[in-house]
Amino acid sequence: xxxxxxxxxxxxxxxxxxxxxxxxxxxxxxxxxxxxxxxxxxxxxxxxxxxxxxxxxxxxxxxxxxxxxxxxxxxxxxxxxxxxxxxxxxxxxxxxxxxxxxxxxxxxxxxxxxxxxxxxxxxxxxxxxxxxxxxxxxxxxxxxxxxxxxxxxxxxxxxxxxxxxxxxxxxxxxxxxxxxxxxxxxxxxxxxxxxxxxxxxxxxxxxxxxxxxxxxxxxxxxxxxxxxxxxxxxxxxxxxxxxxxxxxxxxxxxxxxxxxxxxxxxxxxxxxxxxxxxxxxxxxxxxxxxxxxxxxxxxxxxxxxxxxxxxxxxxxxxxxxxxxxxxxxxxxxxxxxxxxxxxxxxxxxxxxxxxxxxxxxxxxxxxxxxxxxxxxxxxxxxxxxxxxxxxxxxxxxxxxxxxxxxxxxxxxxxxxxxxxxxxxxxxxxxxxxxxxxxxxxxx
Length: 443
Fold this sequence. Notes:
mainly alpha, disordered C terminus
């Protein structure tokens, strides 16, 4: 009697979106380390007439990641919108399954590049295929939509952060082993071939899992079709009753805050990869894996932060804490000259992932369930359009400041984060005033 019950419980867990998230992130964390090290290996012979040999390697790596990130950031725009509309019409698994096929093909492409010594530019084509499948731009809103529909409005923030927690935990495990797997090879294979083979296999299992096992099951309690106002929760986690209608000013402020914050975070993270590979850090594959793992621990600490802080402070205060955490940590990163200093800087960013899940949770409460996927995807697309500005800007600034202050881009990132805090402060100031006006009207 116990065994069937245990099997049923395990089968129920396997049908949840969390299982897909874990498998995908395990594979992606392996791929990220592999791509970083393969690009480093290919940069050894890079030469630019206007810079030194060491700076040439940095320029080669940053130029590659600039083009690659722009490709995988911009090509998913139209496919992601189409998949979001398809998902809102009832095909909830489509925005997850199709991007996972793109993940699989891009991982397979890098494996072929390593095995057959193909030109690194092949990955540009793989990026196009990945983008046309919807990429992360469609996949993550699809995941968030399924998680949102499977929870009540009251618990939605907690549920979304739980998904982020599992995402981070899987990334932590994958990153810790990725450097060691990269160094495994035989006389007939290259460095990274075993690592990429495991990554490809994990993505294949993830795709098959989403096709055969993933279940779409909205909560039985119907949620109101009218959008609720974007008011923060009262201390203690008790939601504040919202008036009928939408507060588009707050929605716009949240979009601005999200775009500024993601620009600061993504711009800095794009440079951080090449930064740790140059002197004085000069990391190996194992150290790169450990560094990526340190980044993944932020998912865990951010989740714990939400669980503790949301009992006492509002959602806007949660967002501000997360932004301040990142701003301080990335500013300290500007002056990192040793590995231990890198981990000290990372320790300051403990709550850096709180802002975006909280912003997505608030936005998901503004629209009816039938439009939830479109709303979340619209935010994701806005962030992609912002990458047209911040990716080239951060790359070129880093290349120009290599000789006198390589960490200048991290200082710039900290300043942009502080600017992103301003719209959130405005929302926090407007909400109490709005509540007082509504109380006077009711009286």
